[in-house]
Amino acid sequence: MSDEAHIRISGVKHAYKTEAGPLPVLDGLELEMQPGAFSAVVGPSGCGKSTLTKLLAGLLIPDEGEVILHGQPVTSPRSTVGMAFQNPVLLEWRNILDNVLLPLEIVPNKLNQKQREDRGQELLAMVGLEGFEDKKPSELSGGMRQRASLCRALVHRPEVLILDEPFGALDAFTREDLWQIMHELRHREAFTCLLITHDLRESIFLADEVVVLSGRPARTQHVMDVPFGADRSLEILYTPEATDMLHELRHQIQVAQGRVPANQEQLT
Q1: Which domains does the chain show, CATH number per domain?
Q2: Is the pTM of this model over 0.85?
């Protein structure tokens, strides 16, 4: 593996303690990401995708192996990491701008209040929420709350952004709209991104590569490079190339689920 990697996960094993004994979740997981890369991780439900995000965020420590960020082992939460989840978890007693600014009250920074507000308003404008700064979360739709959550995750300019199924609970049209916003944010803000998703179309639209995890305990089963360039629109999802990629990913998921043997040719 490269010493220049921004993120390196090497030989990671992890098990949860249960009354019935250890429950192995990850088994020798390998993953490497270069600075500025965008990787999507897919796999069967319960295979350990969310555990991976907690390890990278420093919320868990692996039983074996290493999680390396910028050449340093991750042993505790890092201020250089931003996170967004399926549930935006916005604070109802704070307006949208104040929700977005929350990390700047926690993460050490040299910004004064005016600079903080300017940064929050800049991000809200990027995601189409200009004019909603003073609204409470309950006054916004689910898609709008998720846009605010993305802004909050990015407001402190993290080096690494972790997205744990942030679009999974949204309707199809809102989800596709947020894919495009996420793609624009990626090219306007400098970060390395790891996306956990169950949506294969989402993975190939947003990512540079898609990592398929095996069934639990998970290992890295398959890595697919995404050949689409920086200029992407939803139309690429209807191309023959995208269709072939989706067929391959579905096949890999079936292998991970144990529904077909790994050496069985996929149906086309």
Answers
A1: 1-80+160-268 (3.40.50.300), 88-157 (no CATH)
A2: yes
